[in-house]
Backbone:
């Protein structure tokens, strides 16, 4: 992994030069084009991925064939089917590239090794998990307590540059509303 | 903290006897009666709490005065306003005791110290966060993809013994449905 990218990725962490080199040697670059599938339902999930550029989407396909968007990942996010990645179960979700992306993958095996060898590496991911935990709680509260318009405004605030890359039905399926409701909300806000 | 409770709490962790003693000395017992308020919106949140017995509930009060239940915590769960606890911001939620409880509180300051002194302590909470992260993702997917009846069944599965302690509007406000819908679902399932 390139030194500049590595330094940016771990800017909040407190690693020695040698530790940073060890970690960087285990992160493998992958280039994806729009439409590429990173993970499919039923896959064994051995990797988590750091998004350096582009945009990916995790979605769940229900029995009726409807897509539900669990997550978008843009620059600086990590993405995987985390339940499968953490537990070893098969993936329940799908991850596709929705805008040409450069990502770096890290295997669970290497991650476990780094947790043991470099305490600051575990601190880095414990803090990441805290932030993701807060974001998910905020989303659940939003789903319970906020009208769709406010949830849409939160989405735009959280992902300011994403609207160019994603289709309307991606956003609608993230917010749990129909594309018609999304259009109505946008028209209302444009007035 | 009592040795037997301490051993149970950290049964999955790999601590030495001395480490376990250090951790136990920092966990302070608190007894709560039904109706006691552990945390209120606007509070500074200095503690997280391990529930040894009883039941607590985190809820958010919206502008219209409606309660939205974010979390229930029964034996073996940890509870706090985590966003406030992690960031130092003021609490946005309220936590009340809904069934006589014995809990053990641990301060953020002590937690940070334990993260530094005992790497296995950070591993323990990193794994806890992974599990909570998975549970929250599952709940979000459920809210997006499942009808209310299935979400209710998941709730009953996740909290098998909770129905005695909680009011119908607690459960309804956790599932994001009205108490009337909850009654309808129960009647349907009883048939």
Residues:
């Amino acid at each position: 992994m390139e030194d500049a990218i590595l330094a940016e990725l771990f800017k909040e962490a407190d690693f020695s030069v040698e530790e940073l080199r060890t970690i960087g040697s285990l992160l493998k670059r992958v280039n994806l084009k729009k439409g590429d599938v990173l993970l499919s339902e039923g896959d064994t999930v051995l990797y988590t991925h750091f998004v350096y550029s582009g945009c990916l989407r995790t979605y769940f396909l229900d029995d009726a064939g409807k897509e539900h968007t669990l997550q978008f990942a843009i620059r600086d996010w990590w993405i995987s089917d985390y339940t499968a990645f953490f537990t070893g179960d098969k993936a329940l979700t799908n991850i596709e590239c929705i805008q040409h992306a450069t990502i770096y993958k890290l295997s669970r095996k290497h991650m476990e090794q780094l947790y043991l060898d470099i305490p600051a590496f575990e601190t880095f991911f414990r803090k990441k998990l805290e932030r993701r935990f807060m974001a998910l709680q905020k989303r659940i509260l939003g789903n319970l307590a906020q009208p769709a318009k406010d949830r849409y405004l939160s989405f735009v605030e959280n992902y300011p540059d994403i609207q160019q890359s994603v289709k309307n039905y991606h956003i609608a399926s993230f917010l749990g509303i129909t594309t018609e409701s999304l259009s109505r909300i946008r028209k209302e806000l444009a007035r």
